[in-house]
């Protein structure tokens, strides 16, 4: 596989993902993203799909690398980066989500005075990434057990970074695990940080700002800095899949 088109899922896969996402209120989604830097999409995946994705974790043929967080000071837990081609479900959702998120991202960049504008098709943005030397896929599958956590961080893998990413909870809270909440923090200039804990059920997705987002102030828009992480898992095992839209160096 050399051409960017080799990394794009087939049209029927994308069409199925687009149909899956068609029922959501994307205007309300954009408003929530603008107000809080994150927004949830309820029930994107069904329980069987969640279990099937989580079951991929020990199957090394699907992944390009395996990271143990403690070795790098990232927290405690582990994750694997998928390799291309992505599983059909993830590839289809990545492509189908792109135009919805690109609209928000373009609005944010305009408000923040950033020249970067994102194309209508995800393939065109991947082409930009690859021309910049960012060719490694970034969607990942994370696994936590009791005592594990993910430190607050930002997923920036090169000069080109799409400002929104999406995480899907694959495990069922209260049955598969306890604790392990998704946490987002926001630092506004000359103010103390604000924390947002996002409750998720199995199959839910949360979209959130990777780095900066605009906030309307009395003198116009200003940038706030965001980081995300996962609080300590108290019991059981928690799996999450993350879709990042820029490739890495």
UniProtKB/TrEMBL annotation:
<dbReference type="Pfam" id="PF09859">
    <property type="entry name" value="Oxygenase-NA"/>
</dbReference>
<dbReference type="InterPro" id="IPR018655">
    <property type="entry name" value="DUF2086"/>
</dbReference>
<protein>
    <recommendedName>
        <fullName>Fe2OG dioxygenase domain-containing protein</fullName>
    </recommendedName>
</protein>
